[in-house]
Design a protein that fits this description.
- There is one protein chain.
- The protein is of the alpha/beta class.
- The chain is about 35% helix and about 15% strand.
- A 7-stranded mixed beta sheet has the order 1-9-8-5-4-2-3, with helices on both faces. Strands 12-13-14 form a 3-stranded antiparallel beta sheet.
- It is globular and about 80 Å long.
């Protein structure tokens, strides 16, 4: 990917980011310091939630939420098969069962209708429905929450692609404000809308859940004597562990980068929106391509990905041929995602036969370059190469 002139993704880094990281390195205070706390406070204020917790990956965020919620072999999740491995794997790390619902074949998103169909078939207690805002496009949170409530299930948002997006509904709210969910998880991986290199976060308005998550990401270690069982007197070094935890803490270094980037999240989303609209202008007349849905509302999408929907089977063309054509012009691409039931670990899932639209979405969809470093000339060139594949002139 790095050898391509236009990889499918690239981080948005500037001099201020570098200065922020160097400043931490110069202090030589690299872990469990004030930068982590400051980043958490910024997230808390931005999303207007009671708690924001930084951790070292989006996977750690998901696992910490699942485990703190009490997922186990009797309490599982329903989620989409069109997502990265971690959404489901983090539940299996809790020994919890996972049930996959079908998706809309054009957007790849879970819908209330598909969720209801899944609840009609699932055979275990569903403690949480894990909603994935694929590519930065938002699910119908109102509709999904109504279905989940009927079964006393919580909504958890996997918003790793949707940082900075605004959900428009009865309650207009930023993704991360948890207006319809128990918790929202984010990833700050190298190519997400903002990056910590590797990193993640959880937002929630449930203080009990937040306290459990905080323990889970730091070895289960308790420092507050009021929460201990018979702590010794006059022992300031003393700590206690009532339950096992993990080391999911993020460093001051990675949080310095994340905090610096987060200050310009709105500008980053605005740039991505401009790029998306440039693609729309150059590709809208291509009858062989279906473009992603545009809300035409400010921050209505996170635009982590720009996905083309192409009926390769109908055109009697292999997806590999299209990818090779792009690569021959130094343009990267990616597929988001291989349905999880196609993975050997999940391949015995009996629900595969019901996931028809998920299979269609996978077969037809490809992600093309989407990052803030692209300019008008770049997008015009990429669109021209795409249109030329179908013998269409810009």
């Amino acid at each position: 990917m790095n050898n391509l002139r236009f990889p499918y993704a690239r981080a948005d880094l500037n001099k201020n980011d570098i200065k922020a990281v160097l400043k931490v390195l110069e202090t030589q205070y690299l872990a469990q310091g004030q930068v982590v706390k400051k980043f958490e406070e910024k997230l808390k204020n931005k999303f207007d939630v009671s708690d924001a917790i930084i951790c070292n990956s989006g996977t750690a965020a998901l696992h910490s939420v699942y485990r703190s919620l009490g997922l186990n072999n009797e309490n599982g999740i329903i989620t989409t098969p069109i997502t990265f491995l971690a959404t489901a794997n983090a539940a299996r790390m809790c020994n919890a069962p996972v049930f996959f619902t079908d998706v809309d074949s054009k957007s790849g998103l879970m819908t209330p209708k598909k969720l209801q169909e899944a609840f009609n078939r699932v055979k275990f207690k569903v403690k949480a429905v894990v909603v994935v805002h694929l590519g930065g496009h938002l699910c119908d949170l109102e509709g999904l929450s109504k279905v989940a409530k009927k079964y006393n299930s919580f909504i958890i948002e996997d918003a790793c692609h949707a940082l900075g997006a605004l959900h428009y509904g009865k309650k207009n709210s930023l993704i991360g404000s948890c207006k319809y969910s128990l918790a929202t998880t984010f990833s700050f991986h190298a190519i997400k809308n903002i990056t910590m290199g590797e990193g993640g976060a959880i937002t929630t308005n449930n203080s009990n859940l937040a306290n459990k998550i905080k323990l889970n990401i730091s070895h289960g270690m308790i420092r507050n004597k009021r929460e201990m069982i018979n702590p010794p007197k006059d022992a300031p070094w003393y700590y206690q562990m009532k339950d096992i935890g993990w080391n999911y803490r993020a460093s001051e270094i990675s949080c310095a980068l994340g905090l610096s980037q987060f200050k310009r999240i709105n500008k980053i989303i605005e740039k991505r929106d401009i790029i998306a609209n440039l693609y729309k202008n150059h590709l809208a007349h291509n009858e062989y391509i279906s473009l992603p849905k545009f809300s035409n509302r400010k921050y209505g999408e996170g635009w982590h990905l720009f996905q083309l929907n192409i009926d390769f089977k109908k055109l009697k063309v292999k997806k590999q041929e299209f990818i090779k054509h792009l690569r021959n012009h130094s343009i990267g691409s990616q597929v988001h995602y291989i349905p999880l039931v196609y993975q050997p670990y999940y391949s015995n899932n009996e629900e595969k036969k019901f996931l028809i639209e998920a299979a269609t979405f996978y077969n037809n969809t490809i992600s093309i370059p989407m990052y803030t470093g692209l300019n008008k000339k770049n997008v015009r060139f990429i669109a021209k190469v795409i249109n030329n594949f179908f013998n269409i002139t810009n």
